Amino acid sequence: MPKVFGFAGFSGVGKTTLIEQLIPLITREGVRTSVIKHAHHDFDIDRPGKDSYRHREAGAYEVLITADRRWVLMHELRDEPEPTLEEQLTRLSPCDLVIVEGFKRSLIPKIEVYRAANGKPLLYPQDPNIIAVASDEAMDCKGLPVLPLNDPPAIAQFILARIVGKTHD
């Protein structure tokens, strides 16, 4: 099973942007990395009129699209409950690290991404699985490391050392 590490925070604080900046830094260290992103709304990666869309709309349970550069499997829940993070992890190909965006209540180690200007409360006081806070300003988080949000290499090194057990040479 790969190491699993999450990012939590309210919408608009920059979780996706930070993860996008971290992936090349982590993979450059030889860590094969995958991502699971939780969406809180109905989303669709398919477009009306496309063959795969038409197959799903016709009632297909799963549609797999494959080409010489990538493949994607779309699975319709059709009144089934949303799978848990643990269930989704079993569907990934082997890797070293899975970065999780969302699933903020999951029992995985995570960094809280926080911007005071967003006007939302900190999550770490209610979540013992938050092991650090990444913020755009200095703050006291009662013993938790506070990482500079605008320094992705420092955050990548924190993840590599704490989660993957790898330090920069």
Helix content: 10-25%
Radius of gyration: 18 Å
Mean of all residue-level pLDDT scores: 92
The helix/strand class is alpha/beta
Supply the CATH class. Alpha Beta
Order of helices and strands: EHEHEEHEEEEH
Shape descriptor: globular
- In CATH terms, the superfamily is P-loop containing nucleotide triphosphate hydrolases
Largest pleated sheet: 6 strands, parallel
N- to C-terminal separation? Answer: 25 Å
Strand order within the widest beta sheet: 2-5-1-6-7-8
What is the beta-strand fraction?
A: 15-25%
The tally of helices reads 4
The total domain count is 1
CATH second-level architecture: 3-Layer(aba) Sandwich
Number of strands: 8
CATH fold-level label: Rossmann fold
Low-pLDDT runs: none
Domain Molybdopterin-guanine dinucleotide biosynthesis protein B (MobB): 4-136
Organism: Limnobacter humi
Protein name: Molybdopterin-guanine dinucleotide biosynthesis protein B
Could you write a compact summary of the structure shown?
This is Molybdopterin-guanine dinucleotide biosynthesis protein B. The protein has four helices and eight strands, in the order βαβαββαββββα.
